[in-house]
Amino acid sequence: MNDTFKALADPTRRKILDLLKEKDMSAGEIADHFTMSKPSISQHLKLLKHAGLVQDEKQGQYIIYSLNTTVFQELVSWAFGFTQLKNDETGESR
Q1: Exposure check for the chain: N or C terminus, fewer CB within 10 A?
Q2: Distance between CA atoms of 21 and 34, rounded to whole angstroms?
Q3: Which of 14, 20, 17, 8 has its CA nearest to residue 64?
Q4: Among 47, 61, 60, which residue's Cα sits nearest to residue 17?
């Protein structure tokens, strides 16, 4: 989960995730939304993939990136655990 939070800490990577929320895209299509170099975008994609936030699939000569919603579901579930109050005496959830 540390890699996930590290990946989410960067605004460029969050923007990439926002783009992929709309539709699956190639690295070139993603790069078109930024003023940085394509190798820099590739590095961001590599970190997102390593964190499990995106997955890729080769389609012809392109690699198409998409969100890995499973990791987001795990994060939400983990965070939701903090909203569950414990009864001080019994230890049961309320």
Answers
A1: C
A2: 17
A3: 20
A4: 47
Cα–Cα separations (whole angstroms), residue 34 to 4, 5, 12, 55? 22, 22, 9, 20
**Residue 20: CB atoms within 10 Å:** 21
Q: What is the pTM (predicted TM-score) of this model? A: 0.81
Give the residue ranges of the chain where pLDDT is below 70: 85-94
Q: How far apart are CA 64 and CA 93, in angstroms?
A: 43
Distance, CA of 46 to CA of 56 (rounded, Å): 10
